[in-house]
């Protein structure tokens, strides 16, 4: 069972609004005076979700490094996809398949921000390697502002193999790299598509890069070496949506 703690006013509000059936219980900090926290607790009671009061230390413990603001929920997340479920989701999405692949993003804030953008772009799935990458910790969930609950996450053991599988299913793979010869504005992002971004320090690994059909860069006229991976994710996802005529 994939049960997690989600903490903080905004993520909790998102879960109560979008997926109340997945919320098992709400914990509110003893003596919490934040009006938003009280409103959320009241909303949960109206939805028939048990609300309990707990000492601040208990919320601190389950939140890890994330800021809980006096409220936490026990949330039954949709299961992460394995390779087979990812392929089924891509097949079901057909021409509209839009997959975000993160090759070893290690900062949970960056993972959360990428999930937020992917959810906003209605991506089919986000793919991450099982090892040497940030997982869906409370910090990542909180940084995703509810995105982690709205876009399926696939964890795979061999990223290069997964990219080859996607290719066989008709998905075009574009890797994002600052040294690519062509820009994202010169790259065709219509049809089934996977966008691959590299890690904070090293970028894409060699085998991942070699598995890409195309490489594309986001032009940067300023004197900076690269963009933050979550910023690059947002830029390229929404350029893809623009080319695909998605303007809602
Ligand atoms: C912080 S950057 C990594 C920088 C790393 N030193 C490198 O050489 O790739 C993290 C990821 O964001 C993406 N990225 C950042 N800036 C980019 C740009 N201007 N064009 C394309 N991708 C970019 C790439 O996928 C990159 O691997």
TrEMBL record:
Keywords per UniProt: Cytoplasm, Methyltransferase, rRNA processing, S-adenosyl-L-methionine, Transferase
RNA 2-O ribose methyltransferase substrate binding domain sequence ranges: 5-81
Protein's UniProt keywords contain Cytoplasm: yes
Signal peptide span: none
Coiled coil regions, renumbered to chain: none
Superkingdom: Bacteria
Enzyme Commission number(s) from the entry: 2.1.1.185
Catalytic activities: guanosine(2251) in 23S rRNA + S-adenosyl-L-methionine = 2'-O-methylguanosine(2251) in 23S rRNA + S-adenosyl-L-homocysteine + H(+)
Classification via SUPFAM superfamilies: alpha/beta knot, L30e-like
Protein family (similarity comment): Belongs to the class IV-like SAM-binding methyltransferase superfamily. RNA methyltransferase TrmH family. RlmB subfamily.
Protein name per its UniProtKB record: 23S rRNA (guanosine-2'-O-)-methyltransferase RlmB
Species name: Aerosticca soli
UniProt lineage: Bacteria, Pseudomonadati, Pseudomonadota, Gammaproteobacteria, Lysobacterales
Protein's gene: rlmB
């Amino acid at each position: 069972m994939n049960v997690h703690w989600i903490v903080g006013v905004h993520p909790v509000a998102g879960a109560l609004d979008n997926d109340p059936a997945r919320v098992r219980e709400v914990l509110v900090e003893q003596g919490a005076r934040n009006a938003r926290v009280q409103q959320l607790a009241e909303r949960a009671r109206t939805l028939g979700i048990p609300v309990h009061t707990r000492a601040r230390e208990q919320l601190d413990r389950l939140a890890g490094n994330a800021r809980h603001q006096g409220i936490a929920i026990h949330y039954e997340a949709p299961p992460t996809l394995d390779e087979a479920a990812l392929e089924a989701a891509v097949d079901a999405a057909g021409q509209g398949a839009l997959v975000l692949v993160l090759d070893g993003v290690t900062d949970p804030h960056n993972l959360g921000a990428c999930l937020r953008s992917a959810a906003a772009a209605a991506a089919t799935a986000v793919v991450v390697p099982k090892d040497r990458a940030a997982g869906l910790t409370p910090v990542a969930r909180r940084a995703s502002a509810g995105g982690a609950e709205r876009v399926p996450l696939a964890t795979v053991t061999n990223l290069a193999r997964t990219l080859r599988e996607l290719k066989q299913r008709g998905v075009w793979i574009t890797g994002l790299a600052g040294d690519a010869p062509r820009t994202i504005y010169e790259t065709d992002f219509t049809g089934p598509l996977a966008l691959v971004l590299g890690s904070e320090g090293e970028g894409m690994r060699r085998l991942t890069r070699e598995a890409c059909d195309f490489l594309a860069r986001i032009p940067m006229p300023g004197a900076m070496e690269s963009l933050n991976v979550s910023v690059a994710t947002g830029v390229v996802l929404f350029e893809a949506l623009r080319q695909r005529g998605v303007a809602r």
